[in-house]
Write a structure and sequence with these properties.
2 copies of one chain form a homodimer. In chain A, 45% of the residues lie in helices and 19% in strands. With 165 residues, the first copy, chain A, is an alpha+beta fold. In chain A, strands 4-3-5 form a 3-stranded mixed β-sheet. The first copy, chain A, has a two-stranded antiparallel sheet with strand order 1-2. In chain A, 35% of the residues are buried. Chain A binds a DNA duplex (30 and 30 nucleotides) through α4.
DNA sequence: TCGCTCAGCGTTATAGTATAACATATGAAA
DNA sequence: TTTCATATGTTATACTATAACGCTGAGCGA
């Protein structure tokens, strides 16, 4: 029995979903939207989910080559990433020039990311209060936001614990 | 009479200070801190202040060459930028791979940036509520932040007005 | 069936951003 | 003067991203 996509209403799930389940959601969602989640695009989304951390485009190229013996050029990967981002399935982590799978493509891309300097994992969070604050600040100066980049670098709980050992 | 640095207590000044005055402040501050704001570093800071928008490292190299007929290599510029950032005098805009002068080096680097897609100018804002929110979210999951990147891309009031014409 | 179109992908070359590694200079302290 | 630390210069190269053009295959109407 194939994995079924499951709606998630928890804004604090912190991205904790089974990769296969989220990929199934992506497939369903792209079907609804009438856009093509091709094999390449799906593979890249899977790689992002499996890695669980911001992954560089060239790392993806290397991973595809390992997995498939398929040599993919940079433009091909960048185009796939562009698609995934446009569909809300992935996001670029600007402070790392790297890409992560997004947890809730069915909702807007209004999340912030916490990235651990030590282990490299990232956690996605949605916080409407933050979005509102930014909108408020923007409105005060007549600025119309089109994109928010909120990335917090630091040490995750797990790494902090193992450092303290 | 030389320009004197003037303290600024307005968290909403939006970076509206005379470049020369802010550079004077930087000189004073580096003196107090016992670090060297060398000619090169000062020149780069001036260029950032004069530009008023996120400026790429290679643009700075070109500008220095125009101004001084001085050919500077990338490592030299990147090292100067590293210094300015460490001193809170400048900040990297991650979403643009570019650098801006910072308004309040005497305070922490807890600001967010609004960058206009149309004219390229950026406005720096301090919002403690935002910092608190992020800290709160981080604390809930045991994450210890070391750096916050908050960049908002959009259209500034001026460009919105001229578009509407 | 044929040929058209269009989206997606492949390929080559190159642009743009950043750093490693090592050499030189400069100035203050011993 | 020697020594040391800090800053800058130089060369080469790594890493990130895109332009430009060509190929292919699926869908569609003539």
């Amino acid at each position: 029995m194939p994995v079924a996509p499951r709606p998630c209403a928890d804004p604090d799930c912190r991205g904790r979903h089974a990769p296969a389940e989220r990929v199934a959601l992506a497939i369903a969602l792209c079907g609804e939207r009438g856009v093509q989640l091709t094999k390449l695009r799906r593979q890249i989304l899977e790689l992002l989910w499996e890695s669980g951390r911001p992954t560089g485009a060239y790392d993806l190229i290397a991973a595809l080559k390992r997995r498939d013996a398929r040599p993919i050029g940079p433009p091909t990967v960048y185009r796939a990433l562009e698609f995934l981002i446009a569909q809300g399935l992935a996001s670029k982590i600007e402070s790392r020039n790297a890409y992560v799978a997004c947890t809730h493509p069915e909702r807007g891309q209004e999340s912030l990311f916490f990235i651990c300097s030590s282990c490299g994992t990232s956690v996605e969070l949605e916080d409407q209060r933050l979005v509102h604050l930014i909108s408020e600040d923007a409105a005060r100066m007549g600025f119309r936001p089109t994109r928010r980049v909120v990335e917090v670098e630091g040490t995750c709980a797990r790494c902090a614990a193992s450092d303290a050992t």
